[in-house]
Amino acid sequence: MIGSDKTVLEGKDFILSFTIGGPEESYDPLGYNHFTVEQFMYPLQQTAYLAGMVYHKPVYSHRMVYIPGVYNTQDEVEGRARAHADKLMAQIETITGPADNKIQKFVANWFAEFDKLPEVNAFFTEFLADDVNITMPEGTFIGHEGFRDWYAIARATFKPGCDHQVEQVEIKPQGDTQGYLYQVELRIRLQSESFAESALKGESVNLLVNETWSVSLDDNGKVTIHDYLVEPVSND
């Protein structure tokens, strides 16, 4: 496979992408295929390891057979095929895209969600470490419960439909962590209307703040925030 030069594939990424006709439950010790999909991949996984390649979790989709009037519909299979292509492209982007791009995209999505101030805050807590340390002008908040306490204050103060403008982003690798930990320095301008019963008494807000985040980036490209500091910029 690799000829006389055993290092020709060393360090390269190995991705398996395939579709499966059968349902997910059939790839189980109690199903008719008896083994999981991952277990069927062990020989290929070991081959990748022997060649010194970086093995990534396979991308696969079930129920990809269309038998008219018997199994699935054409629309269902075509929809799954499109979803499969999206999953594959997302994994390739995760593997090949620079960390800065991933973090900058995350920052944009984070503040776009904050602009809406949704009642349910699950989007935010998904990306917060369990012991996240959050320091805001209102005080210090620890963990997911602390975030929820602060978020309740924010929703009681600012009206949904506010505008967070990301004026500056600087991303720096942090420490000897193989590139997985980063410090993110942000300059954010918040423009919003406040509720009359809030501490801002219905005033319009045009606030400039500096934010410093400590974030990690896992092998799948997911960002997790560990420290979150917000400091208003003085008008002096």
Walk me through the structure.
With 236 residues, the chain is of the alpha/beta class. The chain has two domains: 13-96, 3-Layer(aba) Sandwich (Rossmann fold); 99-232, Nuclear Transport Factor 2, Chain: A. It has six helices and ten strands, in the order E-E-H-H-E-E-H-H-H-E-E-H-E-E-E-E. It has helices at residues 37-40, 42-50, 74-96, 99-116, 122-125, 143-157, and strands at residues 13-14, 17-19, 54-55, 59-61, 128-136, 139-142, 163-173, 181-193, 204-217, 223-232. The protein has a six-stranded mixed sheet with strand order 6-5-10-9-8-7. Strand 5 and strand 6 (139-142) form a beta hairpin.
Secondary-structure map:
Layout: E1 13-14, E2 17-19, H1 37-40, H2 42-50, E3 54-55, E4 59-61, H3 74-96, H4 99-116, H5 122-125, E5 128-136, E6 139-142, H6 143-157, E7 163-173, E8 181-193, E9 204-217, E10 223-232
Parallel strand pairs: 1-3, 2-4, 5-10
Antiparallel strand pairs: 5-6, 7-8, 8-9, 9-10
Entry keywords:
6 helices, Rossmann fold, 30% strand, 236 residues, two-stranded parallel sheet, Nuclear Transport Factor 2, Chain: A
Topology as H/E string?
Answer: EEHHEEHHHEEHEEEE
How many beta-strand segments?
Answer: 10
Mean pLDDT: 89
Percent of residues in helical segments? 25-40%
Can you tell me the CATH topology of the largest domain? Nuclear Transport Factor 2, Chain: A
At the first level of CATH, what is the class of the largest domain?
Answer: Alpha Beta
Helix count equals 6
Largest sheet: 6 strands, mixed
Second-tier CATH architecture of the largest domain: Roll
User: Uncertain regions: pLDDT < 50 for 5+ in a row?
Assistant: none
Distance between the termini: 68 Å
**Oligomerization state:** single chain
Side-by-side strand order of the widest sheet? 6-5-10-9-8-7
What structural class do you assign from the helix and strand content? alpha/beta
The domain tally reads 2
Report the β-strand fraction as a percent range: 25-35%
Global shape: elongated
What gyration radius follows from the Cα positions, in whole Å?
Answer: 24 Å
